[in-house]
Design brief:
Fumarylacetoacetate hydrolase, domain 2, 5-stranded mixed sheet, binds magnesium ion, 8-stranded mixed sheet
Amino acid sequence: MVKLMFQGSDHELRPSKIICLLRTYAAHARELSNEIPKRPRFFLKPPSSLLENGGVVRIPEGVENLHHEVELAIVIGKRGRHIREEDSLDHIKAYTVMLDMTSRDIQNEAREKGLPWAEAKGYDTFAPIGPEAIPSGAMDPGGRRIWLKVNGEIRQDGNTDLLLFPVGRMISEISRVMTLEEDDIIMTGTPAGVGPLVDGDVVEAGIDGIAPLKITVKSN
Ligand code: MG
């Protein structure tokens, strides 16, 4: 459970799952030599990976290449399955900022061997979130600058207009597979510029219109 600032007070977030889209920005797919998917594709992170704003991301023992990925995240407000794209906005509670922390070395090994990504993506502290959630009615998620700095230096600088799929399409496709529950989180994928983090790095990340997220990285 983590807290987010929502409509002037603390909101305790209790997601049943965190769904993460992949390769949703063409330039990021290219930088990792991946094909662009024809429809939204996704994987899961466990809720135990969540970390509040201001927290410490721990580099797990044996992880040599921890990467940052800044992402626009959707918080679901209403249960639904087989949600039609045109009805999807009714199911969004809020938008927030997240980091999809990734052990790129473990992920690359998994890709080569055809193994799942759960380990590369699912360690404790690998899903920093917040500090603020903006109600869906108060924000259009399109056309927003999305950025990330490491020790004050800009590393990712994109725009949500470059997302290959509208958020409604993502919600519709995911809900054909799994029922979306209130407080479930959808991470919409990262723009180009992902890269490694080391012990002591300070990461700030933001999306225009939402308060920025800040975390520190520490080795085990
Ligand atoms: Mg990601």
